[in-house]
Design a protein that fits this description.
The chain has 358 residues and is of the alpha/beta class. 36% of the residues lie in helices and 27% in strands. Helix 1 packs across helix 2 and helix 9 packs antiparallel against helix 10. 41% of the residues are buried. The chain binds zinc ion (2 copies). The site of one zinc ion has 5 residues, from loops.
Length: 358
C-alpha cells in the first residue's frame, strides 16, 4: 500500500513538473499523438494469433445499463469474422475493441426480439463502410429475418445515398450497402444443423426454447479443434446442451428470478402496473444462472460466461447475489461477461484465455 502511494505520488510530481515546464496544451498534444500512434488504423486483432476469439460486444439486456450494450457476441475464427446479434450500442463497443470489420463474413441472429436487432442498422453500416464491402452483408436468422433486413435496408436507404454522394462510390460502394437476409428453416424434429462450412470454420444453428417466441436459435462455432456455443435467449434447453457437448467455451444468457420478482413487487407498490407485469412475464422464458450452470456442467464445457444479464449487475458487490448457487453447480471457470471482454481459444492448444480490450 505504502509503495503504491509512493508510486502515485511520484507520477503526480512528474506530471506537475511537466505541466510547469511544457504547459497543459503541450501535454494534451503529446497524449493525443501517443494515442494516435498506438490505436488509429492498427489491427488490434493481429496480436491475438490464430484461433477462435470471442468478443463480448454486448453483455446487457433491454434494461438500461450504463456499462453494458445490448446482446452481442462477435467471433473471429482465423480470418473469418462473425457477429451474433447486434443489440443497441454493441457495434460501437466492437469498434472500440478493435474487431476487424474487414474480416466480417456474416451476421447471425438468434431471434427477432428488438433487443437483439436494435443495433443491426449500425452493424450493416459499419460492415459496409469500415469493412469496405462490395456486396450486402449476409444476415442469417429465423423466419422473419427477411422482413427485418428489408426494414433496415429501407430505413437506411437515404443515408446510403448521402454517403455515396459525399464520399464517392470508391469509398462507399453502393453495391455493398445493407444486408441480404438468409432465412434458416430448421425442419420439424431437427434440433441442429450446419449453416456455415467454409475454410475450416463450421457454424451450427441450434433450436432453443424461448417460447412463445419460436423459432429461437443458439449457435455453435468450430475452428481448428476449438469450439464455443452461444445460447441466445432460452430457458434450460436440452437441445442446446446436446449441441454444446464438449465445447471449450459456452456463452449463456442469465436472469435472476428473485431479483426480478423483487423489482416487480416494488414497481407494483409504486403504481407501475405495466412494468410490474413485465417483470412477472419475463421470468418464464429465460434461464437462471443455475440453469446456465447446469447446461455447462451437462455439456462438459471448460468455461462458462454469462451474458444478457437481467437485471443489470452494476457492481462486483452484487455478483454473488446474482450468481446464487451457480458456482456450486458448475466446477469449471465461471464468469459474468462484461463489455470489452475477449475470450481466446488458441489453435492447437487447450487454454481459455481472458483479456480486456480496455
Ligand atoms: Zn428474447
Ligand atoms: Zn433478449
Amino acid at each position: 500500500m505504502k509503495r503504491k502511494v509512493a508510486v502515485i505520488g511520484s507520477l503526480l510530481a512528474i506530471l506537475v513538473g511537466l505541466a510547469l515546464v511544457l504547459g497543459r496544451g503541450a501535454i494534451a498534444e503529446r497524449a493525443f499523438q501517443s494515442a494516435l500512434d498506438k490505436n488509429v488504423g492498427v489491427d488490434q486483432s493481429a496480436k491475438l494469433g490464430d484461433g477462435l476469439h470471442a468478443y463480448v460486444c454486448g453483455s446487457g439486456s433491454p434494461m438500461p445499463d450504463t456499462d453494458r450494450a445490448g446482446p452481442c457476441i462477435a467471433v473471429l475464427a482465423g480470418n473469418q469474422g462473425f457477429i451474433f446479434d447486434s443489440g443497441s450500442g454493441s457495434v460501437r463497443k466492437l469498434g472500440r475493441m478493435g474487431f476487424p470489420m474487414g474480416k466480417l463474413q456474416a451476421e447471425f441472429l438468434t431471434h427477432l426480439h428488438s433487443d437483439h436487432i436494435d443495433g443491426l442498422g449500425e452493424a450493416l453500416l459499419q460492415a459496409w463502410i469500415a469493412g469496405s464491402r462490395g456486396a450486402p452483408l449476409p444476415v442469417y436468422g429465423p423466419e422473419g429475418t427477411d422482413k427485418v433486413v428489408a426494414g433496415f435496408n429501407a430505413a437506411y436507404a437515404l443515408d446510403q445515398g448521402y454517403r455515396v454522394a459525399h464520399h464517392g462510390p470508391k469509398v462507399a460502394n453502393p453495391a455493398g450497402a445493407g444486408g441480404a437476409a438468409q432465412v434458416i428453416a430448421l425442419p420439424d424434429g431437427v434440433d441442429s444443423q450446419v449453416v456455415w462450412d467454409q475454410q475450416g470454420v463450421k457454424i451450427t444453428v441450434i433450436r432453443v426454447n424461448h417460447a412463445p417466441i419460436s423459432p429461437a436459435f443458439g449457435y455453435r462455432v468450430d475452428y481448428k479443434g476449438r469450439s464455443l456455443s452461444i445460447s441466445g435467449d432460452t430457458v434450460y434447453s436440452p437441445a442446446f446442451v446436446t449441441a454444446s457437448k464438449g465445447v471449450d467455451l459456452m456463452f449463456h444468457e442469465a436472469l435472476n428470478k428473485q431479483m426480478i420478482a423483487a423489482m416487480g413487487k416494488k414497481l407494483g407498490e409504486r403504481g407501475q402496473a405495466n412494468t410490474a407485469q413485465i417483470m412477472t412475464d419475463i421470468q418464464n422464458y429465460h434461464a437462471s444462472p443455475e440453469d446456465a450452470a447446469r447446461s455447462a456442467k451437462e455439456a462438459g464445457v471448460q468455461a462458462l460466461v454469462l451474458y444478457h444479464l437481467v437485471p443489470p449487475v452494476p457492481a462486483t458487490l452484487i455478483e454473488p447475489l446474482f450468481l446464487g448457487n451457480a458456482p456450486k453447480q458448475f466446477g469449471g471457470t465461471l464468469k459474468l461477461g462484461h463489455d470489452g471482454m475477449i475470450v481466446s481459444l488458441p489453435a492447437g492448444g487447450k487454454q481459455v484465455k481472458f483479456s480486456d480490450a480496455w
